[in-house]
Amino acid sequence: MLGIVAAGIAPGLALLSYFYLRDQYDSEPLSMVFKTFIFGALLVFPIMFVQYVISTEIGSQSEFSQAFLNVGLLEEFFKWFIVYYTVFKHVVFDEPYDGIVYGASVSLGFASVENIFYLFSNGLEFALGRALLPVSSHALFGVIMGYYLGKGKFSGDSQLKWILLSLMIPIFLHGSYDYILFTLENWLTPMIPFMVFLWWLGLVKVKKARVLSTKHFENNTLFKSPFISEK
Length: 231
What we know:
Number of strands: 0
Number of domains: 1
Order of helices and strands: HHHHHHH
Shape: globular
Oligomer: single chain
Strand content: under 5%
Largest sheet: none
Helix content: over 70%
């Protein structure tokens, strides 16, 4: 039992550590990161209940609705809701890169509990495959969500556009991931390039968020400089 729990949570903690340590300015308080990780973990239970009710009451559904609505929309909306209402307006969210830390934290909390349940049901031999696919994909959905939330918070007039993208793009990517699983018998063949693309996109967003944070701190430092005289 202990081995399954450790195998289930280790990939999530490793990925979260990676994205956390990429924060080059004013690292986030570990207590807040842990809090959002736990919120993400707890999300598994209401989402599983809602998905069960939908499958019971509605019955047979198309692969498209299962992938994009039952999974993509439900899971990404609730993760987005947690990040937006617990962190986005909080004082600790003080640079664009913070969105990536908290987006990854909530997503990996969710993915870790989901992963533990799966390993209990199917066996420890699936641990590596789960780490490479579902856990990694959840992390990257969270990274992309967090990038747009971070961009939105510090973009002024266009905030609404970026906040909408922070929800819609992860829903689309998550739905696409599950649609491949639900519709293709030999799903591994298209999944490999999809995951390569997802990692590429996620790391691009990490790099862009770091650049935005650098500009944010440079502008704040310039604004506060005692050597800048007021006119």
